[in-house]
Design brief:
The structure holds 2 protein chains of 2 kinds. By secondary structure, chain A is mostly helical. Chain A contains 7 helices and no strands. Chain A has one domain. The termini of chain A are far apart. Classes of the chains: A mainly alpha, B mainly alpha.
């Protein structure tokens, strides 16, 4: 693909998708919960903007609805709910200790290269202007998975889960110009319900074991000493 | 390429101009910082006055100092000026650019660093050794990041030659490249680290716990110090010109016509002054990092450069179609 043959709008889609990838990396190395949630909100905003631009360049008006849904749910409502819960549970002063920060970032880079290699045959088949972004969208999914593995705080893992859904939406957007509307509405509703349920879970976990650090959940009884790593 | 005497003359004038306005850029950044922090600023020619003052002072050299300590200031200024000569400042059609590419530029900067560290160790003081060890630790992290950022550009233009790369970008017109956004951000972070500015090092303090570059040159005085400081100012400008001319090359003269050269000079001055204002702003907003946090900062810069390269390969080139 030669960059000059694309219109500036299509080039802007590439830039935005690169920025989405960057926010995935930013999520990976963010030790503070409120910053993590803000970065997640930015990712949602960028994704909504990408969807709107794809809708504009490919003349698919139904994608505007997806973009609006993404903007409302992932850039505003879910971050707002998560932020509310973090403040209510008084977690906003805590910083997570991320072990091997640089190693995880390098692992993330390796994942991106892996995704590029895996999606190459798929990209060769596609004729869409957004075909090069498929690798990036898959990388977003895997980076969110890496986020869930590397973070120890339940709230960050939920953010990772939501970011994974962002990646899936992104993949659908760039490989086939979006899923059927009914599927997208269903997923949006799912995500909304999930975030409410996670909130309830946070409260219960907190009440029962006094912490949201998942390392502490490995203990079988109160008397057993905490095993770190 | 066939280069006549005129173009060599142009290259020489350009390098002289580079060396001459480097202190002005430092003065501009300093003045901006003062204005932002609500202090009264020194005049823009203050760095020239400081250099003038230092050149007329006696150079004190420790009794144990070997010849390395004496020649280092000249080597530092010499290699820095050579590095400045490679960079297209106001025109791209230069004979110097066709004999040395960007890897030579990075090599010159590495040579400067090597001799600075060697001279710091030579005198045998605790500060010198400490500064040298810190500098080399940071350098091992900045150099790969810088090369990655530069290679991103080289891959886009299919050349490591700076003049050809700039010509290529100019010929493409306005193209939004995701890789350039990351590369420019990465290069800016590296430039801040390499030139010893906040948040990695503070150029205006001599607090022993935090010094990196200042600790290495603590034993220098008089004309030796003047040479080193001047080289530092040129180095800052090298990074500024690298960022301004590689990523935003519009305005640079592609011919050696006097009008084009005039506009090239004006445009690079404007670009450098804007970059200087940005640097002053970031130095006012940020606090200095602890030394142990510096690797985090630099690995972030490396990540940005790597992302630049990856987005070039993945997004801009993509799979080769038959």
């Amino acid at each position: 693909m030669i960059l000059n043959n694309l219109t500036h709008y299509e080039q802007a889609i590439l830039v935005l998708s690169a920025l989405v990838l960057f926010t995935s990396f930013a999520l990976l190395s963010q030790p503070r919960l409120l910053n993590l949630i803000n970065t997640f909100a930015w990712q949602g905003t960028l994704l909504a903007l990408t969807a709107a631009l794809v809708a504009f360049t490919s003349h698919q008006p139904h994608l505007y609805i997806s973009a609006l849904l993404t903007l409302i749910l992932k850039a505003w409502l879910i971050p707002w709910m998560l932020r509310h819960q973090v403040l209510k549970l008084k977690l906003h002063h805590e910083t997570e200790t991320l072990t091997n920060g640089t190693l995880i970032l390098l692992g993330g880079i390796a994942l991106v290269i892996f995704c590029y290699h895996v999606t190459l045959p798929l990209e060769r088949l596609s004729t869409l202007a957004t075909r090069n972004i498929i690798a990036i969208s898959l990388a977003n999914v895997l980076l969110s998975l890496l986020l869930i593995i590397s973070h120890r705080q339940a709230v960050s893992q939920v953010v990772g889960f939501m970011a994974m859904e962002n990646g899936l939406f992104f993949a659908a957007l760039v490989s086939t110009h979006g899923m059927p509307m009914i599927v997208e509405l269903g997923i949006a509703f799912d995500i909304l319900v999930a975030s409410v349920l996670f909130g309830v879970f946070f409260l219960h976990i907190r009440e029962n074991i006094d912490t949201l650090n998942v390392d502490h959940m490995n203990r079988l009884s109160e008397n057993e000493p905490t095993v770190r790593n | 390429m066939d280069h006549n005497l005129n173009s060599w003359l142009l290259a020489a004038i350009q390098t002289l101009l580079f060396v001459a306005i480097a202190p002005l850029l430092t003065g501009w950044i300093k003045a901006n910082k003062c204005w932002l922090q609500n202090r009264s600023a020194p005049p823009l020619r203050q760095p020239y006055r400081d250099l003038h003052k230092l050149f007329h002072k006696e150079a004190v050299i420790a009794g144990q100092a070997s010849w390395i300590f004496r020649v280092t200031p000249y080597i530092i200024l010499g290699t820095t000026v050579l590095a400045a000569g490679i960079l297209p400042l106001i025109a791209t059609d230069l004979p110097t650019a066709s004999i040395a590419d960007v890897i030579v530029l990075v090599g010159f900067l590495a040579l400067t660093r090597f001799f600075t560290a060697l001279a710091a160790l030579d005198i045998g003081t605790a500060f010198g050794g400490m500064g040298a060890s810190r500098e080399m630790t940071l350098a091992s992290l900045t150099e790969p990041a810088m090369l990655m950022a530069v290679f991103t550009l080289a891959m886009t233009a299919s050349t490591t030659n700076l003049s050809t790369a700039i010509d290529f970008i100019l010929s493409q017109g306005f193209v939004l490249r995701p890789s350039f956004i990351f590369a420019i951000l990465g290069l800016m972070m590296i430039a801040i680290a390499e030139t010893g500015r906040i948040p990695i090092d503070n150029p205006s303090t001599h607090l022993e716990l935090t010094m990196v570059h200042e600790a290495m040159i603590l034993e220098y005085s008089g004309r030796h110090l003047a040479l080193i400081e001047w080289a530092g100012q040129i180095k800052l400008m090298i990074y500024g010109v690298l960022i301004a001319n590689l990523f935003i090359p519009w305005g640079i003269a592609t011919t050696s016509h006097p009008t084009a050269l005039f506009w090239g000079t004006i445009s690079i001055l404007i670009k450098l002054f804007i970059l200087g204002t940005f640097l002053a702003l970031s130095e006012t907003l940020l606090a200095k990092l602890r030394l142990f946090k510096a690797p985090d900062y630099l690995s972030f810069a490396l990540l940005l450069s790597l992302l630049g390269m990856l987005s070039h390969v993945i997004l801009e080139v993509g799979p080769l179609t038959k």
